[in-house]
Structures are given as C-alpha cells and as structure tokens.
Amino acid sequence: MTEIILFSLFALTAVTCALGVVFHKNPVHCALLLVAVLLSLAGLFIMLHAQFIAALQVIVYAGAIMVLFLFVLMLLNVRRHEDVLTPGAAKGFGFLFALIVFVELLWVALSPGGGEQGSVGAPAALPQEFGSPAAIGRILYTTWLYPFEITSILLLVAVVGAVLLARRKFVG
Amino acid sequence: MDLATIIEAVVKVLIVLGFVLMGVPLIVWMERKVLGHMQDRIGPERVGPFGLLQTIADGMKLFFKEDMLPAQADKVVFFLAPGLSIVTALVAATVVPWGDTVTLFGREIGLRITDVNIALLFLLGTTSMGVYGIVLGGWASNSKYPLLGGLRSSAQMISYELAQGISLVPIVMITGSLSLSQIGRAQESMWFVVPQFFAFVIFVICAVAETNRAPFDLAEAETELVAGFHTEFSSMKFALYFLSEYANMMVVAGVAITCFLGAWHGPGPIPGVLWFLIKLSLFLFFFIWLRATFPRLRYDQLMGFGWKVLLPASLLNMAVTAVVLVMKG
Predict the structure, then answer these.
(1) What residues of B are in contact with residue A51 (Cβ under 8 Å)?
(2) pLDDT exceeding 90 applies to what percent of chain B?
(3) pLDDT per residue as tens digits for the range A47-71
(4) In this structure, are residues B258 and B40 in contact, taking their beta carbons and an 8 Å threshold?
(5) Which among A35, A58, A68 has CB closest to B125?
C-alpha cells in the first residue's frame, strides 16, 4: 500500500512537472520544473532499491547539470514569452523523436512480459547488496569495463572539444 | 513500526532541529564577540549578560521588519529561494552523527536522526541542492547585484563541491563505507586527520568556500556587490538566509569532525556527545578566526585556485591513497 502511494506521488509529480517543463513560458521556471522531475525520478530509483543511482541522480543531474543550465539561462537572460526554439525544422525533429520514443515505450509496455517487468516495486528475489555502491562499482569494472572506459574517453573528448571551441576566439 | 520507534524518531528530530536553530544565535553572538576582540573592540555587550541576548533581539527586530518585494521580481521563486536554502541545510543535518549508540529504557538508540548507508552521498546531494537557494534568490530579485552574486556563488559552489567530494573519497576507501556512523566508528584508535592530512586541508578550504564564508565570500562582497544575492531580501526572508548560512557551517563542521577529527571519540572519561560538542565549538571558532585573519580573494583567483590547485591536489591524494591501500593489501 505504501509502495503504491509513494509511487503515485513520485510518478504524478514527475509527469506533471514534465508537462510544465514543456508548456511553461518562462525558461527559468522550466528549468526548475525539470529539477523537480529529476528529483521525483530519484525517488522512484530509491523505490527500485537503487539508492546509489538515486544519489547520483541528485548530485549530478539535479545538483550540477541543472545549475549549469540555470547559469546559462541567467547569463543569456532569455526573456519570458520568447520562443527559444525558433527554427521550424528543430521543432519538427523534436516532435519526430518524441513520437519515436513514445512508440518504443508503448511497444515495450504492450509486448508480452513487458507488463511484468514494468510493474511497481522490485522483483521478488534481489541479491542482498543490489544497488549498493560496491555492487555497481564491481559490475562497472568487470562486466562493463569496456563500455565504461569508452564512455569516459567520449566525455574527455567532449571536454577537450569544448575548451578548444571556447578558446579559439582569443587565440586565433 | 511501533510507538517507541516513532517517539524515538520524533525526539531525535526535535533535538537536532532545536540544537541547530538554537545554536545559530549562539554562533552569531560568538562570531561578533570573537571578531570584536580580534579587532580590538568589545563587541555586543548591552543586551543581556555579555551581550548574549543581542542576536535574539536582532531576530525579533527582523521579525517585525517590513517584508519587501522588489518591483518585477519573480514572486514565486523569490518566496521559494530562502526556504530552499534553510530546508537543504536542515535536511543535511539529519545524517550527521553526534555520538555512538546509547541504551536508554532498554532500547538501543543511535545518536543520529538516520543512519542511511549512503550518508556521505546524501550529504553531497543536499549541499548541491543548497546552491539553488542562492542562485534563485539572486535571479528572482530582478536586480543586478543579486544576480551577479548568485551567478558567482553558483560557479564557486560547483567548482569547490568537486574537490570537496573527491577529498572525502580516501576516507571512503579506508573505511569501505559511505555511512557516517561507520566512518566515525573506524576512528576509535586513530583520527583520519593523521593519515589523510592533505585531504583534511582540502576539505576545510572547500568547506569554507561552500558555506560562502570569508575569505571566499565573493557572493556577498560588500565592496562590489552591496550584499550579493540577498541584497533585496528583508525581514524573515533575510533571516532565513542568515540562518541557513550558519546552519550550513554547523553541518560542514560536523562532517569535518566525523570524517577527519575522530567523530565523537576523544581521550578521557568525557562522554562522546560532549566531545563532539567541544570539537564543534572549536571548529566554529576556527571559521570565525579565518574570517578575521584573511582578506577576501579576487574572483578569478578563487576560481583558478579551485580548479588548478585544489582539484588536482585532491585527485592526486586519492590516487596515492589508492596505491598505498593496494600495496598494503
């Protein structure tokens, strides 16, 4: 019972705020609503016994990345009622991708066995230390070592690229 | 969940909240007194014995001040921001242990509100949410000084959060736990400040920067930004910002004590809780001492120091600790 109440609370908050992100006029309010979405997702992660992922969600996404978003919005001073995505093509692509993701999710939910995996709460038999930092660390550095390292190289490339782009103005 | 558990939880929450909220006027008084004497003045002395009631009087005064709302300010966010600040500060206080377990009425009671197994991450998470209170306060005021103050502090807090988090990693590697009470227990024979002195220094510097205290109080540099992010806040909204700054000081001091200075352990027959309180007061005194001693840094110096000195130093310290731990087996 508690599980259903908590799930509805987090899920409803997430969906409501996500709608707010899309439909609100003020960009800063949109960013704040996105923070609320990320926080309620963290709550859902905790309900799935993934405390570590939940903590990372709060620290990295809600804490660091969204603060940077806000930072940029404030520096650029994007005004209210201003259409941020002016090019029509960008809008079209946005709708297209949203549609694809929606169909995908629908397909997973309706496919046989999908309902079971997507049901509220965790499967009956979970290992004792499921979702703990130690368990996730072990898996990352054994089974998924190559994808993990490749991701880190990808991020490094992005950082170096960003620095290069930012400095070009002053050097060249 | 039986009745006793609920009573225990309520009592502990009341103790911690009461301690933090009652502690703030005392710290403010201490700050004014200590600063006064360090600057060859007397400090507050008129209200109450030794001026002890000065902060209470100031609080009353703030309570009766007019609550101003700047023109064109974002009403909702302006209202929300100080609340976010104080809530994150108080939530962070829930995981700081102030003693080991005691047995009372036949029940084993852990001296902390909650002992989550990822307490350290929980703490980093709440402090990173605390940035919002300041950034949004600065933005919602619709005024240039607060906006600049808010932007500065957000950049500052993100930068120093990194080094602060990484300086705590060696402690986690040594104890093999993210739980603050486990970390506290592991320091019975030796405080972690001895093997991890560099991490301690890095953590303390970052802690000062995270709480926006001098010499890192760029967010509210009076000489250039009037009062920074809280320029437009008056009455209780200002008081909430004030309260959360000092509550954050207490939390950060509590974390430093738990992770490096032996938590509630100490020599002699003094009970652990008392040791914790003694260390807390000394640490807060240290904060004030810093403020009286150092001039404020320039903004670019501050960012350069965080990214070019503290972050590499903390990464190096982590790597060295890892190598040593592996060699020890």
Answers:
(1) 116-118
(2) 6
(3) 888 888 888 888 888 888 888 888 8
(4) no
(5) A58
From the candidate CATH numbers 1.20.120.1200, 3.20.20.70, 3.40.50.800, 3.40.50.300, the one assigned to the domain spanning A2-125:
1.20.120.1200
d(C-alpha A92, C-alpha A98), whole Å: 10
Mutate to test the interface with A, among B72, B127, B142, B154 (most CBs of A within 10 A): B154
- Under 8 Å CB-to-CB from A68, ≥6 apart: which residues? B158
In this prediction, residue B270 has a pLDDT band, given cuts at 50, 70 and 90, of confident
- Asked, as a colleague might, if the bond just before A133 is cis with ω within 30 of 0, I would say no
Mutate to test the interface with A, among B78, B147, B158 (most CBs of A within 10 A): B158
Gap from A133 CA to chain B (nearest CA, Å) = 8
Q: pLDDT tens digits for B179-201?
A: 888 888 888 888 888 888 889 99
Token duo for residue B329: 């087996």
Q: A-chain residues within 8 Å CB-CB of B178?
A: 133
A-B contacts at Cβ under 8 angstroms:
67
Determine the distance in angstroms separating the CA of A165 from the nearest CA of chain B, rounded to an integer. Answer: 19
Taking the domains of chain A in order of start, what are their residue ranges?
2-125
